[in-house]
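ARCHIVE CARD
CATEGORY: sequence design from structure
SOURCE FIELD: tokenized fold
FIELD CONTENT:
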């Protein structure tokens, strides 16, 4: 199978990720729940995960909260910063992991910047949204539908200048683009473990500048006499038993990223993206491409997108079709009624993947079946 759906999850992991998961399952007990060797091994494993993440994302280990997913982290962050009735500025390319929690709080949402790959439009509209008054801002780093890399450093600066707390959704950027809690000054940055960081599903990270409000309440292995959650991070946000094997795998994935270098991975992915855009253009397929684009490409073939994805699957090509859990992004691009057919490269992007996809796309898009 030619796997081109890394925007959903990294299917094929580096070998050390699989080894780390199995080793932790065989050797680690419940962290913080005992002083015996297996419990201490689990505690050390989790701290290694925090240390590795802190090194990658420019923060302190205690600012790294271990979550079950990026969505989990975003829910913690949003409920910590946003109150019902608040006015919140978001970008025009947000995922439902951002917009649904906001709608659940019944807030007033200002959608800033609807033009794809246009930093000036994004920044001008985002500035207007902040100037009209906002209690918080939430914005993605990279659109999961179109690969649009938003100008997050400049958006962060606008928030800091106006004293507006903000959250960054790094679901599609962590592992391939620079992400810095310290430099951006974000209140929170959320990310999954299973995409660009090459860890297992069921893992995620929430980087917290200061404190936060718990989403879950329960045992932490610390301050057990208290009936309130601990005031200090990360314990305050980590109720219950953590996924030690998953975070062992995530640590190995992040170590791989750190050794390979995010810039090198991004360039390898982007080379294939450019080849793919050229090949589809020669076929006359409409593609959504432009400056400031990561390794995700949406297209509109001259056939139903869902049917195209199904036909490609039968040919051994894994793509994704539909709205990709991001109706705001499709509203911005004018594809809400059709959805798109999406291709997204991962760390193992190769010429073979691109050539095989283009070969099969040429056959399918010309025959329609």
């Amino acid at each position: 199978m030619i796997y081109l759906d890394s925007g959903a999850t990294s299917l094929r992991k580096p070998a050390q990720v699989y080894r780390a998961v199995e080793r932790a399952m065989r050797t680690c007990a419940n962290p913080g729940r005992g002083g015996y060797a297996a419990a201490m091994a689990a505690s050390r494993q989790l701290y290694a995960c925090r240390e590795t993440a802190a090194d990658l994302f420019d923060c302190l280990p205690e600012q790294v909260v271990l979550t079950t997913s990026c969505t989990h982290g975003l829910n913690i962050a949003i409920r910590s910063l946003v109150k019902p009735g608040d006015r919140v500025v978001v970008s025009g390319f947000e995922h439902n992991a951002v917009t649904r929690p906001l709608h659940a709080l019944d807030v007033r949402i200002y959608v800033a910047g609807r033009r794809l790959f246009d930093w000036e439009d994004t920044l001008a509209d985002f500035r207007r949204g902040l100037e009209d008054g906002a209690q918080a801002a939430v914005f993605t780093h990279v659109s999961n539908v179109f690969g649009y890399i938003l100008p997050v450093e400049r958006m962060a600066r606008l928030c800091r200048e106006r004293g507006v707390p903000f959250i960054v959704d790094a679901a599609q950027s962590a592992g391939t683009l620079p992400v810095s809690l310290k430099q951006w000054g974000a209140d929170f940055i959320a990310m999954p473990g299973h995409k660009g960081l090459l860890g297992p599903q069921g893992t995620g990270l929430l980087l917290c500048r200061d404190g936060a409000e718990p989403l879950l309440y329960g045992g932490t292995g610390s301050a057990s006499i208290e009936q309130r959650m601990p005031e200090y991070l990360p314990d305050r946000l980590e109720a219950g038993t953590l996924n030690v094997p998953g975070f062992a795998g995530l640590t190995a994935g992040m170590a791989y990223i750190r050794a390979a270098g995010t810039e090198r991975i991004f360039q390898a992915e982007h080379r294939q993206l450019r080849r793919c855009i050229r090949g589809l253009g020669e076929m006359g397929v409409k593609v959504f491409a432009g400056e400031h684009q990561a390794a995700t490409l949406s297209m509109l073939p001259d056939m139903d997108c869902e049917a195209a994805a199904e036909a490609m699957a039968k040919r051994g090509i894994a793509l994704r079709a539909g709205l990709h859990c991001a109706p705001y992004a499709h509203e911005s691009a004018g594809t809400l009624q059709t959805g798109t057919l999406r291709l997204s490269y991962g760390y193992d992007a190769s010429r073979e993947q691109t050539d095989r996809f283009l070969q099969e796309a040429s056959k399918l898009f010309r025959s329609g079946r």
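CARD ANNOTATION: The mean pLDDT is 96. Residues 262-283 form the longest helix (22 residues).
SHELF: design records, drawer C
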